[in-house]
Amino acid sequence: GDQVEQSPSALSLHEGTGSALRCNFTTTMRAVQWFQQNSRGSLINLFYLASGTKENGRLKSTFNSKESYSTLHIRDAQLEDSGTYFCAAEAKDNNNAPRFGAGTKLSVKP
Amino acid sequence: AQTIHQWPVAEIKAVGSPLSLGCTIKGKSSPNLYWYWQATGGTLQQLFYSITVGQVESVVQLNLSASRPKDDQFILSTEKLLLSHSGFYLCAWSPGGDTQYFGPGTRLLVL
Known about the structure:
Largest sheet of chain B: 7 strands, mixed
Radius of gyration of chain A: 13 Å
Oligomer: heterodimer
Mean pLDDT of chain B: 93
Order of helices and strands of chain B: EEEEEEEEEEE
Largest sheet of chain A: 6 strands, mixed
Order of helices and strands of chain A: EEEEEEEEEEE
Distance between the termini of chain B: 38 Å
Helix content of chain A: under 10%
Mean pLDDT of chain A: 92
Low-confidence stretches of chain A: none
Low-confidence stretches of chain B: none
Shape of chain A: globular
Strand content of chain A: over 45%
Distance between the termini of chain A: 38 Å
């Protein structure tokens, strides 16, 4: 089965609001990375975490290896935050080939 | 600063024709290099990775091959394209098996 379960699949936010994306893992992961894919298809690296929490501007991400999940919090959403967000996790027992979630399509509206 | 380039930007190819996609990284010596494929509307899947020049490991078999002829160059190719090869191909690099940075990608349509 899928090792990375990402939710929600789609999310609509009004400017200035916030929400959280989540990835649950069915196996032990050693690290997780979060990306934003824009309309051109470019993947922008947001965070890389081996554990704990990182924050950058309006974004914050947490990775809990023991409880097998990671979250990405977006606050004060802006129009340019629209896009598809992916988590990618590296299992401890593979060759570091990250497994990507199915993505969350975020639409930020005025 | 490191930069990553991919070429071509987009291709329309016929089934059965050959394909060669390129990726170069500037500003970083001996990077780890990766090829990913993304089906339209789908998620990403790693195809190949390379830790050093001349060595490439296959992750997923999709009737594609990859080579690393130079330290800063990664090539994805096939002699005969299939319809299922359509999608978005992304090259990525990492300084050493952790954070990966992606190139702009190549869109491929096989008809």
